[in-house]
Amino acid sequence: MRKVYLILFTIMLFCFGCELRLKPNSADGQSGDFTIERYDRIESLYLSTGDYSALQQMNTSYPAQTRMLIEDVLKLGHVNDPEINTKFLNFFQDTTLQTLISDVQHQFANIDDLNDNLQMCFMNIVRLLPSAKVPKVYTQISSLDQSIIVGDGFLGISLDKYLGADYPLYKKYYNDHQRMVMVREMIVPDAVGFYLLSMYPFPSDREMTQLERDMHIGKIQWIVNQVMEQKVFKSKYVNTVARYMKNHSGVTFDQLLRTYDHRKIIFG
Fold first, then answer.
1. For residue 175, what are the CA distances in angstroms to 8, 50, 164, 185, 208?
2. Residue 204, pLDDT score
3. Given this model, what pLDDT does residue 27 score?
4. For a designed S-S bond to 178, which of 29, 52, 174, 263 qualifies (C-beta 3.0 to 4.6 A apart)?
């Protein structure tokens, strides 16, 4: 059974033409070993024009991503269903969703900033957590279902969840507090945070109290701040972790994340 984490954070350069093959591994001219793959561009082409070559590329170049999107995120059915491609295409023919697709391609025509920041973050993660493995990161459009998706070796970023606090469609479905984090600046911290949560999940052998859950998230958010080299997350739980780590300089990040007796952190 595939281990898939579907995680919701509390929340064109429009391509036409037959037989057009997009460059999915391109982050707009970005070079280097780490590159965010633009799955969203291929997805957008198929969902906007019905281009069969784009569908073929989704299935051949990105079979795992396409399966997760169709089966686990959108829940449209099994990817091998003979009618699934039609269901997938028809699902996005709503005028609102077509506008969403277009706006994603416009706002995220260039993602060099995201690529650079994530590359730096994963370099820091591997340095601080030697057992960590850099996932294959890609962008997608998920119809406002999920923000960040973490699977076995994959990390998907749903760009449609980060179009800005004032994006008109968001005002119909999200409150002010939720919309505050639906911005471009939160993509990298969200991605890093939920990647770490997939590595160090809540214990499954017992029920955690709300304080324990809050403290575990506080540990992860404190580490995100260290990895990003800026204070993105600020809360009393993050402050508690910061105080603990200042007083216990010998504690490694791995040891911190594996400490589920949070009394040690609160009173340590």
1. 15, 34, 13, 18, 28
2. 84
3. 52
4. 174
Would you state the pLDDT for residue 239?
A: 96
Q: Are strands 136-140 and 5-7 parallel, antiparallel or unpaired?
A: unpaired
As beta bridge partners, residue 140 has 158
The residue written with tokens 């079979």 in the block is 63
**Given the structure tokens 């999107």, which residue do they identify?**
69
Q: Encoding tokens for residue 23? A: 């460059």
In terms of C-beta density within 10 A (0-12 exposed, 13-18 middle, 19 or more buried), how is residue 153 classed? exposed
DSSP string over 134-189: --EEEEE--TTS-SEEEETTEEEEEGGG-S-TT-TTHHHH--HHHHHT-SGGGHHH
Backbone dihedral angles phi then psi of residue 7, each to the nearest 5 degrees: -125, 125
Give the tokens for residue 102.
Answer: 């277009």
Cβ contacts of 69 within 8 Å, gap of 6 or more: 43, 140, 142, 156
Q: Which residues pair with 157 in a beta bridge?
A: 139, 148
CA distance 232 to 1: 35
Quick: pLDDT tens for 200-231.
999 888 888 999 999 999 999 999 999 999 99
Ranges of residues in the chain whose predicted pLDDT is under 70: 1-32
203's CB contacts (< 8 A; 6+ apart) are 260
Token pair belonging to 96 = 């609102």
Residue with tokens 């994340």: 257
